[in-house]
Amino acid sequence: MADDYQYPVYFECDRLPEEQIRKIEKYFRIHRKSNGGDCGPVRNVGHKTYSVAFKHQKDQQAVLKKSEHVVNDLVFTVRDSLEPCTSSPVTTTSREGTAPVQSPQSSPTSTPPLSGEECELQLDSYLLRYLKECPKAEKDLERELASLACSAKIYPMEGKVLVRSLDRAGAVDEGRSWKAKVDKVFEGYLCHYELDPQKVKALFQSCSSRQTTDEVKVYSEVGMAVVVGECSQVKARVKDVMDLLESTKQRSGEKQTSLRRLGEAKLRLLWKEIEQSLGRDYPGVEVTQRDAGQLAIEGPVEEILKAGNWISEKENLVLKRKVSDMSPLVLAFLRKAYGDSAGLSDFLGVDDEVEVELRDTDLRLFSLSADKLDNTEKKLKEELREIKIEVPNFSVVASELREKLESKTNEMNQGQYRAEVMFGSDSMVCLLGHAEEVEELSKAVTQFILDQSSVESAVHVSGAQKSASSSLSELNTTVASYILCDELQVLVCRGDITKQEADALVNAANEDLDHCGGVAAALSKAGGPEIQSESNSLVKCNGKIPVGEAVVTTGGNLNCKILLHAVGPVVEKSGGKERMLLEKTIHSALNLSETMEFRSIAIPCIGSGASGVPVNVCSEAIVTAVKEFGSQRGRSLSRIILIDNSEEVVGAMHVACERLLRGISIENHEPLRGATAGAPGDGVHLEIIQGTIETQQVDAVVSPMVGLDPLSTRVGNSLSNVVGSQLTGRFRKEAGHETQIGDTVLVEGLPGLPSNAVFFLGLIPWDDDQDGTAVQVLRLGINNILTSCESRGFTSVAFPVLGAGIALNFPDSVVARILLEEVHVFKQTRDSRTPLLVRIVIHPSDEESSEVFESVQKASQLTGFKNHVHQTDQVKSEYFDTS
Predict the structure, then answer these.
(1) 69 has which bridge partners?
(2) Cα dist. 715→705, 735, 849 in Å?
(3) pLDDT digit string (tens) for 527-551?
(4) Disulfide engineering: 794 pairs with which of 10, 394, 653, 789, CB 3.0-4.6 Å?
(5) Is beta strand 639-644 parallel, antiparallel or unpaired with respect to 489-494?
(6) Average pLDDT over the chain, rounded to whole?
(7) How far apart are the first and last CA of the chain?
């Protein structure tokens, strides 16, 4: 085996321990670190002299070309012979604090001819890159060499400089003198390799506006920073960083105060454990509660950081739930009845293991136990009711009914506020409060109507049933309307499909036509037993219905001519093709209706229930199919109704219509709370939503990085969890060796992601400077991404809250301001009128960013922002007019 390694290199060191030898062997085997490859063991071949032999000569030569090698704190150079070189070497760059390194491989590849016309120098690759990239440095080098009657040509990829003498040939001594002067020129430059993690971080943070000049460059290498420039400038930069770290270290022993905002509910939930555990485990830290759910931590900086990390771990264990179907009217009633979160908690009888947060727009529960959350939410929904009743001849009987209900509510609310009655501008009466009292009021309204008309059928609750306990959600409300080709109308409605009138109603069916759950069960129950009976007969005769197909049965008691059963995909069985299969399903339903020459069809959000397809994927697929169908002429269908009783689902369908149909004539309707408003036909559309970046169905998403590590942030890791190991490999391939901090790396076609591409953006951590390098790099990155989207023809891009995580540590307010400003600047300077959706995605666990974005937008008053943002927790939108 020893004969396989025939290409040795030699280096000198004091006696090396075994552990260090093993590290050096491993270092030489890693090409990206040492330029080496397959090699044998490190051997001691003489006094303070060691060797390692390579299997391939190309690896040996590549190692020899590297001016210095760094393994932990050991810095050494290598040569190709056992004996030290006795000729005058060419001096290359060195680490600060050591004598310049002299290495044989940096010498000319051959002794200059007597003419002294040409000399080839092997120099550090980072120095060559610096000289090539910095115009000022390159001009200074040209000027110095010209004073020696020389010129130089730089070859960064080959790691060499070719220096040519412009004088006529001279004697040998003159050739050596010329060469020595050239050496001295290159001695004026320095490459400082820094491995200490704190110093590496500080060097990148020190890249102020000086980084844009030609004095000093800081390059990123795996696990280290390389500072390159003129010797004096490099040493000054390194000294500045050392001084900064030293002063920080001195301050770390002083007492500091750090504020953390957990939110009032989380703080109440965790306070006892925080107080006890921090007092026991971190005795040097004092922790106190402040207003607005803030926690003050006082003590030495290092102890504060440790305590803060511990608190973050505990905070991550807290489960949060937003109580669904809680209308603004019910929330207002709860505030009036119980005042604040503490009063509501007392009423619900929850112990210290559940905290309630009553907000202006929603009600949230916090606990460390999912079961506790389930029980509390169940109790809330059982205890509260909201009923809306339509009263015939309301204008005639309004005063009498009002007097009757006010009398009853006054009686109910003696001692404690239990119920409330609200009269609308139309014929609707809204009853809300505790279930027992609301049911009593409902019976009173029903009896009043019967007494007035003497006919029971005069009672119309929610426009359909004769029962007075119907919910507000049963009203079929049009949210938006769109006109497609040949006057085909597309409606987005919130309501109950079982009460919808249309020629054809679509059922979200399974392959067995077993209508046992969700929309299928509701339609089957409302239509009567003949629907399931006919379905069973179909399956018995023809077998299971394939995914993507549709069949017809009677509609029974439903308000339709036929019930159309469309079989959509199930996530576990679709192999990632859910969207394609769902589009096929919708096409089948529409084409079958067209064959039967129907005029109208109502379609629910197929696939979004038990089938497990994400709501946004379902919405996009359904609207895409509708748009394609609507582009055909000569249809019998004139109305397509997209309907669901879930606010979230209707909001998603509305957003999809805005994106895909907004270039078509749009009729204005009152926008649904939680959805975007109508968008213009072109321009920049800015949308702020809650969600996760890895689920965004856009042309491209953005992933921030610390330095050039794609897995250094939460977003990068979330994408990696979906894509797998391919992510880092594809990133490295696209990034190459020339990528710097602030550059973007575009990787397209990553498997598992609904987006088509990912922009990886290299950033540097927050430096406490509102206009410092970190902010400038962030601004440049955002602008580069937006410009790249336009040049590549992308129509949509999703940004996370860039840099606001623990890795980069930007304040939310800074990120919000920069993102909104850069999108606005981009809008003002772009020439194209092609629509571009810019989506800012706020993670569901990020409670503060949504409010921060809203407040920053209001405070900024940027010209071109149209202030019709819907104040919701799910979606917020801005539209820019590029006219």
Answers:
(1) 76
(2) 9, 18, 16
(3) 999 999 999 998 988 889 999 999 9
(4) 789
(5) parallel
(6) 77
(7) 74
What's the CATH number where 260 sits? 3.30.1370
Cβ atoms of 252 and 301 within 8 Å: the answer is: yes
Q: Do 365 and 291 fall within a single domain?
A: no
Residues 779 and 867 both lie in one domain: yes
Same domain, 658 and 746: no
Cα–Cα distances in angstroms (integers) from residue 516 to residues 509, 512, 679, in the given order: 9, 10, 39
Contact call for residues 552 and 530 (beta carbons, < 8 A): no
DSSP assignment string, 186-228 = HHTEEEEEE--HHHHHHHHHT--GGGGSSSEEEEEETTEEEEE
Listed residues 475, 502, 526: the one ending a domain = 475
What is the rounded CA–CA span in Å between residue 139 and residue 394? 88
**HSE, side-chain direction, 13 A CA sphere, residue 275:** 8
User: Of 333, 501, 571, whose CA–CA distance to 433 is shortest?
Assistant: 333
Q: What is the mean pLDDT of residues 11-19?
A: 84
Q: Which among 149, 212, 221 has a CA at the least distance from the CA of 178?
A: 149
Q: What average pLDDT does the segment 224-232 reach?
A: 87
Q: Are both 340 and 311 inside the same structural domain?
A: no
CATH number of the domain at 361, please. Answer: 3.30.1370.120
Give me the residue label for tokens 């509609």: 555
Q: Which of 705, 727, 709, 733 has the alpha carbon at shortest distance from 803?
A: 705
Q: Tell me the whole-structure pTM to 2 decimals.
A: 0.32
Band of residue 847 on the pLDDT scale cut at 50, 70, 90: low
Residue 727: inside a domain, yes or no? yes
Give the integer Cα–Cα distance in Å for 165 and 156.
Answer: 21
Quickly tell me which residue has 């069973």 as its tokens: 536
φ, ψ (nearest 5 deg) of residue 805: -80, -175
Residue where one domain finishes, among candidates 411, 442, 475 = 475
| Four-residue CA torsion sign, 641, 645, 651, 653 | negative
Q: Please report, for the domain that includes residue 726, its CATH number.
A: 3.40.220.10
Q: Are residues 605 and 724 in the same domain?
A: no
Residues 348 and 429 in one domain: yes
Separation CA 351–CA 508 (nearest Å): 42
- Whether 401 and 481 map to the same domain: the answer is no
Q: Which domain holds residue 77?
A: 1-84
What does each C-alpha distance from 544 to 110, 158, 409, 535, 548 come to in angstroms? 81, 66, 56, 10, 12
Residue 565 is assigned to a structural domain of this protein:
yes
Query: What is the per-residue pLDDT for 497?
Result: 92
Does residue 716 lie within any of the structural domains? yes
* Count of C-beta atoms within a 10 Å radius of residue 562: 17
- Same domain for 413 and 539, yes or no, is no
Confidence check: pLDDT of 829 > 50: yes
Whether the pLDDT of residue 102 is over 50: the answer is: no
Rounded-to-integer distance, Cα 821 and Cα 783, Å: 10
Q: Is position 78 within any domain?
A: yes
DSSP 518: H
CA-closest candidate to residue 836, choices 710, 724, 725, 700? 700
CATH number, position 45: 3.30.70.330
Residues for the chain: how many in total? 883
Cα–Cα distances (Å) from 184 to 153, 633, 839, in that order, read 17, 80, 55
Distances (CA, A) of 447 to 226, 398, 450, 457: 84, 15, 5, 12
Task: Please give the full DSSP string across 47-68, using - where no structure is assigned.
Answer: TTEEEEEESSHHHHHHHHHSS-
Q: Give residue for tokens 């090409």.
A: 31
Could you identify the residue written with the tokens 């990886």? 760
Strand partners, 70: 75
Mean pLDDT (whole number) for 235-245 = 82
User: What are 171's two structure tokens?
Assistant: 């004697």
**DSSP string for 226-288:** EEEEEHHHHHHHHHHHHHHHHHHHHHHTSEEEEEEE--HHHHHHHHHHHHHHHHHH-TT-EEE
Structural domains of the chain, count: 5
